[in-house]
Design brief:
Largest sheet: 4 strands, antiparallel
Distance between the termini: 125 Å
Radius of gyration: 37 Å
Shape: elongated
Number of helices: 3
Mean pLDDT: 80
Low-confidence stretches: 1-10, 15-20
């Protein structure tokens, strides 16, 4: 019988001979490597599954926080008055022998931005803009004052002060520009999500630029 099996194994193809060889192996020698490989794959699969579940939960939580910010439809309003606007002749910083005109603005503004603060509000960027059309018909927007509000307790603003940044035109003169509109705007910076913008106040009428002076009076 043994000779018959030997002759038959020789006549069999390689795949069948390998199968007969595996059947002749001891039970322990055949299944121990499979158990070891299965144990390693199981630990890796569990770690991979836990990390994937944790990442999914974090992403869903961050998405829910970002979407919850849109439930607050706060639209704060305030008041803005331009107390004075003066223009003076000055020397440019880069070219000492070149003259330019600089505008000085004194304003009075009050606004309450506390409704914009919620659990997803990191800080507010509040700024005052001057919008006017230049001599060549180009619309210009210049920031003349700004403030960063990081706490809800500091979100109520009521000030009378001068500009933080002076008004300068690319042409160097305000003689042929149109009257300017002034607006108080804000930018909400969340912890998670997109930036949102809004306007809290605007001057009722446009204000003309006065003639430039040689000295402060």
């Amino acid at each position: 019988m043994g000779h018959v099996c030997a002759v038959a194994s020789v006549c069999l193809p390689p795949s069948a001979r390998s199968f007969l060889h595996l059947k002749q192996l001891p039970y322990s020698n055949f299944f121990v490597p499979l158990r070891a490989r299965y144990r390693m794959h199981s630990i890796y699969a569990r770690v991979n599954g836990i990390s994937a579940l944790w990442s999914t939960c974090v992403m869903v939580l961050l998405g829910a926080v970002a979407l919850s910010s849109f439930l607050f439809n706060a639209d704060p309003k305030g008041s803005l008055d331009i107390v004075s606007l003066k223009v003076f002749h000055s020397k440019t910083r880069r070219y000492p022998f070149r003259n330019e005109e600089i505008g000085f603005v004194k304003f009075n503004l009050s606004a309450d931005f506390t409704p914009l603060f919620n659990w997803n509000t990191k800080q507010l960027f509040v700024y005052l803009e001057a919008e006017y059309t230049g001599a060549q018909g180009v619309n210009n927007t210049v920031v003349i004052w700004d403030r960063i509000v990081r706490r809800k307790e500091d979100a109520t603003i009521d000030i009378v002060q001068k500009d933080k940044y002076k008004l300068r035109d690319l042409s160097g003169s305000f003689s042929n520009v149109h009257a300017a509109q002034y607006s108080l705007k804000y930018n909400v910076m969340p912890y998670v999500g997109v930036l949102t913008y809004g306007e809290a106040a605007r001057t009722v009428e446009a204000i003309d630029f006065p003639d430039a002076r040689d000295s402060v009076s």
